[in-house]
Design goal:
Chain lengths: 322, 564, 284
């Protein structure tokens, strides 16, 4: 088992690295090969006030006077050593820009993840154990959550809690209360798929013959839930939590804009409007790293959680049936 | 009446507006056993669940009276009923593989049952658990205790479940088809063990089964159910010797072990000579001489799965003469499925030689193999999976004609019509989809599809094991009729020796990839040489009827003999 | 009953289990279809629903609250918000449709090839799908739209590309499920070749759940494209894409209907589409 597990872990980790590198290349190609000579346009933009020497230095640094493949290799090589380059707009190191913005987004995203998990568990438990009619209503919540755009949720929350109830002010978007509401905004759409997976697997597990047999042995519903149903239902949910990390990173762009928070989302926004390719490239690649790493952890944990998982057979893609 | 352990009176059960059980009454005395017998849809499992109060909340409503020791439990609040669960009423489910939580160890789940004993010391509980695991014949209780369900075989899991059910010493056990998911030899061992344990511990048994032979062998009294209503009830002996209703009579007539010659008359017309001296030829003698439709010589196939090599076929040889039926018999893992796949060219053998109708299938191009396949068709075990659900029956039966490019369009349509007629289906099924057909009808469609290209050889892979007993008989009758009319050669794959005795001329018994015994069916049945063959024969319920039941079997043969 | 023994064939013909779930779908589904119908009509013939112009307004009645004359009120130029929503439908709906088509076609081809062919094809395509999955969907859409230029059609393409992975993964799983089915093996024994198995059996049995996903994805695409428009990555004003309407409405705190009316239209549309998708999934 341990030898098998080590081999399994190494294979998975290897695949994860390959995926991250490919994601980098893919992003690079989208940014630089698609139409428009963006880089030089940005550099020559008088707004940024770069001197001719600065421009020459940047062109040399990124190899902009050379073929795309050379640019890619240069950039990829630097990425591998942790060097993210310089912003075309501000000439600041990208690592500094990202580093400044990261704590705010991390706070937002982890709070949102916690809230999403709480929402999802509450919905799933209600769907399972509330009396008939209420359970049906609770069951339709995820579908409703999935239908409301996250910017609408944000605007409604601001309208009521900031403008009417004065729970927080939009002028201090990083205050704990404001952060909480921003996190709720981000959490609501994200909690829906998680709740759906939880509901589906609880339904599935409680219909299994083993649940019937356990009931025939006189187990109460509460013990049945705690002893038998939680663990097998948690398995697909762990995979789903890992998947929604991506949604959190994407959704923070909108949420930060609405709440006026500084963070990775605002960095992306600025980079897009300013056609600041190195920043965009770095943020997207780092998101891919985070996503792949979280999924790798979930993947490596699954054989430890579920004795049935056969190490040779699982694949990242197959675990979560859409 | 008051001495009865379980009394069911006027029990009706409905799912919404649909009533599935109508006014069922029966009773079971302390220490006795009773079998509820019926085919799918008879309501037998629903009744069992109602007694155990395991019907889904809010979906099913049960009315009537179910009394345990004279106390009505049907209307009891769950809180008052729960103390009876496990302690008074035990439950053994059908499929042992899904009846234990897959992510918890056997030991962890066993403690739930042990807790019903009122014992609080975990060490004592563990000792009791290990005791009972040993009692049900598990060789290494400590290892089983620490195992996860997927690490044990089906037979072992069913032993575990029985152990956990008897551990709290209930007065009644409800067993829902406790062995139908298991191999036949295991089936017998488990039932023997259960019978013994029951007598030792004075536990009553309510057995739910579709198998009349098992019911008669294991229960004191029977309740025959059809469409949710009682057809007949009484002592096993009475119902067996003198079934009063048509339905019970037909069930009795469909038990293969009781009527070994049922289809013989229809089959032997083609081969007029007595069956036992011609048919089987040891592999070494088999030649390319006339009449050998299937000739398999020393075929070996090795699979490697998960780093382990499995020898699925180890020098398997058999031969089948034109117009005869040869049976491959074995349990799961015997290699019979692999042998069939090799014969059909779905897998390539590592070594050995296979020829069909005198043509060797090895070393052929894809087109040639395709040509051979025209003469070699397969009827799958499960008609619920072998027909494409999105196709209509007419297209399903026409598929081989289209693919092999047989005839013109009107010719094909005519042949499809003929094929459907020959399997006893009305022409209007051609426009239906499989979902609108019953299991028996689907299997008839599958047979029509196999026959429409007019093959010489048909491989029948457990063609009736997914069907109800009464439907089985219809399919077997049809197959015998078609064999006689068309001179077909059958390779019949089965785990059921009683069935094989009815339909086959010769047989090869397979075990772990090897042929352990082969010969004419009569010889194998009367003089089995190998211990494994004997074990298989022993496991047929009522194959060697007890003195009391001997008369029944003899009587039952009468109508069949009349046609001979 | 007496015929049972003599004619066993009759017996299995008699027990035909027919499941007739006849009748209409549930009321919520009918309502959802009605909503979708209205939305389609809005996009095809907006003139039937409003005679007011979405681009020119009467500045005298600017920022008016909802009334009989102006159901959704008016904006800062006095333009009728209802007319703007109705006229913005075509762009919002077609772009969502384009996005779904891109995801469906590319994703299905990838999934089909990957699942049916297996081996190195699966390995290569699998890594590609992994990459698409690894980049958070909305970020990917943002990057693509920023490369292609800020237009609604580009937002649609970006949304479509970021949906490819979901379709590919589902199609692959479905194909792998069907590929191993007994009836597919049976078709080889009936003389069929691989192409016949693929087109005749695998595809007809695999596409249903992919279509259900496509319906669901239509709703999701409306949301994503609206979000991109909200950020200003779609067509600029005076276009009136739903997301853009919400975005430009939010500056007028005193006129909240400018935000809530189009927001409500988005929510009701997506809710209806999701309901239909769920109904299709269960009715399958």
């Amino acid at each position: 088992m341990t030898g098998d597990y080590r081999r399994f872990a190494l294979t998975r980790a290897g695949q994860a690295i390959v995926v991250v590198l490919l994601a980098y290349v893919f992003t690079f190609l989208i940014i630089s090969v698609l139409p428009g000579d963006a880089i030089t346009n940005t550099l020559r933009d008088p707004q940024h006030g770069l001197s001719e020497e600065d421009i020459q230095r940047i062109v040399a640094f990124y190899g902009l006077d050379q073929p795309v493949i050379v640019q890619l290799l240069l950039s990829l090589g630097r990425f591998l050593t942790g060097e993210l380059g310089f912003s075309l707009q501000s000439n600041l190191p990208v690592s500094q820009i990202v580093g400044d913005a990261l704590p705010s987004t991390l706070t937002l995203a982890t709070t949102a993840l916690l809230i999403a998990i709480i929402f999802a568990v509450a919905i799933a438990y209600g769907a399972q154990y509330l009396p008939g009619k209420w359970a049906a209503i609770v069951r339709s919540i995820p579908s409703f959550f999935l239908s409301v755009p996250n910017f609408v949720i944000g605007l409604i929350l601001i309208e009521f809690f900031a403008f009417r109830l004065h729970s927080f002010t939009t002028t201090d978007p990083h205050s704990p209360v404001a952060t909480l509401f921003a996190a709720i905004t981000l959490a609501i759409p994200v909690s829906a798929p998680l709740a759906e997976v939880l509901i589906a697997s609880l339904d599935h597990e409680s219909r299994q013959e083993y649940a019937l047999v356990a009931r025939s042995r006189g187990l109460s519903e509460a013990r049945l839930f705690a002893k038998h149903l939680v663990k097998p239902s948690a398995l697909p949910s762990v995979a789903m939590v890992a998947l929604i990390v991506g949604e959190l990173l994407g959704g923070s762009v909108i949420t930060e804009t609405i709440f006026g928070r500084d963070g990775i989302g605002t960095v992306v926004q600025k980079a897009v409007t300013g056609e600041d390719q190195p920043v965009l490239q770095a943020v997207v690649s780092l998101s891919a790293v985070v996503f792949v790493a979280v999924n790798l952890v979930a993947d490596l944990a699954s054989p430890l959680l579920d004795p049935r998982v056969k190490l040779r057979e699982t694949k990242l893609k197959e675990k979560v049936g859409a | 009446m008051s001495a009865d352990l379980l009394t069911v009176e006027g029990l009706s059960i409905a799912y919404g507006p649909t009533v599935v059980v109508h006014d069922v009454s029966f009773s079971l005395a302390q220490g006795e056993s009773l079998a509820l017998i019926g085919e799918s849809g008879s309501g037998k499992s629903t009744i069992a669940k109602a007694i155990l109060r395991l019907l889904p909340h809010g979906e099913a409503t049960a009315t009537g009276r179910v009394a345990l020791n004279g106390r009505d439990v049907l209307g009891l609040p769950e809180k008052q009923f729960r103390p009876l669960r496990g302690r008074e009423l035990g439950f053994i489910p059908q499929d042992p593989a899904s009846a234990l939580n897959p992510v918890r160890t056997i030991g962890a789940q066993a403690h739930e049952a042990a807790a019903l004993l009122g014992e609080t010391d975990p060490a004592v509980r563990r000792a009791r658990i290990l005791d009972v695991l040993e009692q049900v014949g598990l060789p290494d209780p400590v290892r089983v205790y620490d195992s996860y369900p997927h690490q044990l075989s089906g037979g072992m899991l069913q032993r575990v479940l029985i152990a956990l059910t008897v551990l709290p010493r209930p007065s009644l056990i409800v067993a829902d088809e406790p062995t139908s998911a298991l191999d036949v030899t295991v089936q017998k061992l488990i039932l023997d063990m259960l019978t013994e344990l029951r007598q030792e511990l004075d536990i009553s048994l309510l057995l739910i089964t579709h198998d009349l032979a098992i019911a008669a062998e294991r229960a004191d009294s029977l309740v025959v159910l059809k469409d949710g209503a009682v057809q007949e009830s009484g002592s096993s002996r009475d119902i067996f010797t003198a079934p009063q209703t048509d339905y019970a009579r037909s069930l009795q007539a469909d038990v293969p072990a009781l009527h070994p010659d049922r289809y013989r008359a229809q089959r032997t017309v083609f081969a007029a000579e007595p069956t036992h001296d011609v048919v089987f030829r040891p592999a070494a003698v088999a030649s390319r001489s006339t009449g050998l439709q299937i000739d398999v010589q020393g075929v070996t196939k090795r699979f490697s799965a998960g780093g382990k090599d499995v020898l699925a076929c180890d020098g398997v040889s058999f031969a089948v003469e034109r117009g005869r039926t040869h049976a491959l018999v074995g349990e799961s893992g015997s290699g019979k499925t692999t042998a069939v796949r090799l014969l059909l060219g779905l897998e390539q053998p590592d070594s050995g030689r296979i020829s069909v109708a005198g043509q060797s299938t090895s070393g052929r191009s894809r087109a040639e193999v395709r040509d051979i396949r025209r003469h070699l068709q397969l009827v799958y075990q499960n008609p619920f999976t072998s027909l494409d659900p999105t196709w209509r029956v007419g297209r399903i039966v026409r598929e081989p004609l289209d693919q092999f490019g047989v005839g013109t369009k009107p010719e094909r349509a005519r042949r499809v019509e003929e094929a459907l007629a020959s399997v006893g289906l009305p022409t209007d099924v051609a426009s239906r989809r499989p979902a609108h057909l019953s299991g028996g009808q689907r299997q008839r469609v599958a047979i029509a599809r196999a026959l429409v290209v007019r093959p010489d050889v048909v491989v029948l892979d457990e063609p009736t094991s997914a069907l109800d007993v009464s439907v089985q008989a219809g399919i077997l009758e049809l197959l015998s009729k078609l064999q006689r009319e068309l001179g077909l050669t059958y390779l019949f794959v089965s785990h059921d020796l009683a069935l094989v005795r009815q339909v086959a001329d010769t047989v090869s018994v397979l075990r772990k990839g090897q042929v352990v015994e082969a010969g004419a069916v009569e010889d194998i049945f009367s003089r089995p040489q190998h211990t494994y063959t004997r074990a298989l024969l022993d496991s047929i319920p009522l194959a060697t009827p007890a003195a009391a039941l001997g008369g029944i079997a003899a009587e039952a043969k009468q109508p069949a003999k009349a046609t001979a | 009953m007496t015929a049972i023994l003599s004619n066993t064939q009759l017996r299995d013909l008699g027990s035909t289990p027919r499941k007739l779930t006849a009748g209409l779908p549930p009321a919520t589904v009918l309502l959802s279809f009605a909503v979708v119908l209205v939305v389609i009509l809005w996009s095809l013939v907006p003139g039937l629903f409003t005679s007011l112009s979405p681009v020119t307004g009467d500045t005298a009645s600017k920022l008016a609250a909802p009334s009989a004359a102006h159901w959704f009120g008016t904006d800062y130029l006095g333009r009728d918000q209802y007319a703007r929503v109705v006229h913005g439908t075509a762009s919002s709906v077609t772009s969502a449709l384009v996005a779904v088509l891109i995801g469906l076609v590319i994703g299905s081809i990838i999934g089909l090839a990957s699942g049916f062919r297996g081996g190195w094809v699966d390995a290569v395509l699998g890594r590609f799908v992994d990459v698409l999955l690894a980049i958070p969907g909305f970020l990917l859409a943002v990057v693509i739209v920023s490369s292609l230029g800020f237009q609604t059609i580009n937002a649609a393409i970006a949304t479509g590309v970021s949906a490819v992975a979901v379709f590919a993964r589902l199609m692959r799983a479905e194909v792998m499920r069907v590929r191993g089915a007994t009836y597919v093996e049976a078709s080889y024994l009936q003389g069929g070749n691989r192409l016949h198995a693929l087109l005749g059996h695998v595809l007809p049995n695999a596409y249903r759940s992919v279509l259900v996903l496509a319906v669901l994805q239509f709703g999701t695409s409306i949301l994503i494209i609206a979000s991109l428009a909200f950020l200003g990555y779609g067509d600029p004003p005076p276009a009136s894409d739903w997301g853009l309407l919400v975005a430009s409405g939010k500056t007028y705190v005193t006129a909240p209907w400018l935000v809530y009316a189009p927001a409500l239209v988005i929510v009701i549309t997506v809710l209806s589409v999701n309901r239909i998708s769920r109904w299709l999934r269960n009715a399958k």
